Batch of 2 targets.
Target 1
Amino acid sequence: MRWLLAGYCGLALINISVALQISQKPRFYGVMTGRPYVMIFCTSSKQQLAAGVKWYKVNEHDEDEEKRIRINAQRGKFELHDKNLTKDGVLQINDLRATDTGVYFCKMNDTWGPGTEVQVARPILRDKALYRTNMKDGLIVLQGLLLAACIAAALLRKRGMGEKNDSIYEEPETDHIYEGLAIETCGGGLYEELSVYAQPEGAEAPWE
């Protein structure tokens, strides 16, 4: 009989834990730095269930549960408040900074809440934004000029090397194969005086 009662009790606890649904409100906060505080509420579908809540923080919503960091009450930063029968059912984050950005989960009776994302951004100053925009545009223009200068220098260098190679292998203007071979004409025409030089000294012509 005792084992039967224990079994019924175990089944009842299992049904309670399965049926228990955790919700968090709100699901998202988008605030600027310096805001005094934000509050996240963790509630269950069993309003009359006395339970304790634990709070955790993680950088991204889809990170593993092992990476979730437990949040404890910290004076001036984190405050935990009770809500009805639920102990520490409210998380209050004070003096928000950019480092407070993340996803906050509550855990009640080993059941995780859906999470609340908190985004903390620094205020944007118009003058600084315009200055950064102008600086960015100036850097883009400077990069374009440097790229054009590098391309022009490469083309000029290639052209200079081509002209240098052409000057090294330049052919001579005139090919004087017989330069230096001078023929003495002895004061007469070259072809008119060949017969004079062809006759031996003292030889007479056959008809003489």
Target 2
Amino acid sequence: MLLGENRVDVIAAIQECARSRDLQRGWKLHSDAVEGGEISRISVANSLISMFAKCGSLTDARRVFDGMASRNVVSWTALMLGYAENKEEILALEALERMEREEGCAPNSWTFVAAAKACSNLAAAEEGEIIDGRLVKLGALVRAMGVHFQAVEKSCDSDIFVANSMLDAYVKCGSLVDARMVFDRMVCRSVVSWTALVLGYVDNGEEEVALELVSCMGVEGCEPNARTLVAAVKACASLAEEKKVTKAEILERGRVLHCQAVELGFEDDIYIANTLVDMYAKCGSVVSAQRVFDRMPRHTAVSWNALMLGYSRNGRPEVTLELFEKRMATLRRCWEELTAGTFVAALKACLCLATKEAGVEVCGRPVKLESLEKGMAIHAQARKFGCDLDVCVGSSLVDLYGECGSMADASRAFARMPVHTVVSWDGLMLGYAQNEEPDAALEVFARMLQQGLPSDSRSFVAALKAWTGLAAMENAKQVSGKLVKARCLGRGIALHEQAENSGFHSDRFVASTLVDLYSKCGSLSRARRVFEAMIHCRDVVFWNALMLGYAESDEGEVALELFARMDCAPDVLSFAAALKACGSLVALERTKLVHGKINRRGLLSSSEEKEVVLLTNSLLDAYAKCGSMEDAGCVFAATSSSTTRNLVTWNTLVAGHSRQVNTREVLELFHALLDEGLRPNAVTFVCLLIACSRGGLVETARYFFHSMLSKFGTLPGIKHYHCIVDSLGRANRLDEVVKLVEAMPYKPNAVTWSTVLSASRIFRNAEVGKLAFESWMKAGDGDDQGAAYVLLASLYESKR
């Protein structure tokens, strides 16, 4: 093929080939240029270098470059751009050093543009490190500074293209100080200059400065383009997500930017529309987000995902799942591209539903079956589309299965992930901790540390929650007159020190979990120190943790003092803690005062279902402990149906009547809960057996004890045996008591023998009393022995 007689035709053909990225035709043009002698022309050779580079064939570009008899600055610049665009940035920067040193060829503005682009690409590939709270790409930054210095030396830094390229390089390196210096020194700025700096501030968490810059553009007479507006809207979305400014204020700014986009004719720009959907959703206006979505001429995966996540974020996960079904239907019809983000959004919606679901007991553990079933269906679809191994999908599955109470599925999802991030490790740990498998959670934490993996604040929260769970199972010991759970306390202190060394001790989630752990371990002084140290960022979670700690440690007065001192609005958990304190103090009037505050706030009608149930149960418990079963009955009667009554509600009322020895009411309530379709659990039977024992209904107690497993599938625990022992003992059937104790499948402990000895004392049975005392001495610890001697002495005193 003849190229034509003049050089312009040859160059035009090569440039056209570069635009179309047609390497096959490029080789033919190169061959023709060699045959026709055109290759000797420096302009033709330069065009060929540029063309081969754009086609991705650096070997051919370098061959043409090396074969040139002489080269000019255009030759070197074309090669540098080729290297920069094909991930050979180091070679591009080496060429900048060589061109003047080896050939005496001085770089021009376009050469420095190519070099700056190489630095930008290096920064994009570099991991970087955190310096003063910013991610900085030091390697790329040092090279960018070198290029900038040379540009200044050659007086090329004032060129607008060089300045813009250096500005972009500094932004990508994470050095906003240098970027701003370049920007401020520019005599003339284009929309590219403004946009690069705005994006830099947004990406580095300085959204307010970014929005300020956008406002200043108009003052300087520079109109923003679509990319500038995308950056500005993104800044609003980030501010709303991080709660740096009120959502109402950010929403107003976002609407102004939206109007500006419409005025400038960018409303149909897909990137602007997607960012607007995301921004409106994060600001809490899903109506506006949906409106933008509906007006879009076409939708991408980003559009769908932003809207789906928006509905979940704003408490409407069911709409997210409806959108997911529509999205899948669209995909089946059109075979559009699908991203893992779609499944992440759907799984997050299931997670949101799971947090609200009460769950049902399966094998003794609460499982959220409805959410679990939906999650499994989405998991199956993710597997079908090959997205189940995506790291974000995997982490979302671990979180969801953990929240639903299915740790077997969570563990399997974790094991299938090809790569584990700190998010996936944290999700698995939290799942085990929340599902009462603290040992498994701590084992995962140990594996993390053994593998040298980085931990974050969430890792420490999970580990601390695990030790809090273990503390609930540990028997407390008397230390300086206080009950302390020494083992868990020691581990909590060690973890606290570890968090301090890692810089996470001041994280509010870590600190509030520490307050909870120390409280549960009986070290309220440590809990109080952590609480006081967080004075500048204490939220309602801190107050609740400390109040509950005091209430559970029988320091109700301190708990109620804290409740009165709260410097933030109390939530449902705050009132629950206050009611627990009232119950521990047997303070009926204070309980009524707290109840009045709850009613004035309308919490029993406006809160979520789970919160209403919690408040109802707390009120019942407080009134029952105060001995006011009439008030407890009124609270119970006010609960409309099974939506606001669960088994805990019934058990709380049954326990209250049991304490008051209202045996008839206890039996009536037991049959009523059966009529409501509820299945009694171990706690129900403890209350029932205590009521029968104290009411003298020995045979009724025996009937319920034997029907626990046979009729209701509940295995009797040692507490239930103690109730029967007490019942038989009260009826002076001490021979049966001894036989029952010897036959029970649990090792008798101090409680067992103290019950037997008490009955022996009442009925002056020295033989059984002596047996009980001796057995108590073997089973009990030092703290119990004093009480044993007192009971034995009382027994022999009564025999005289």
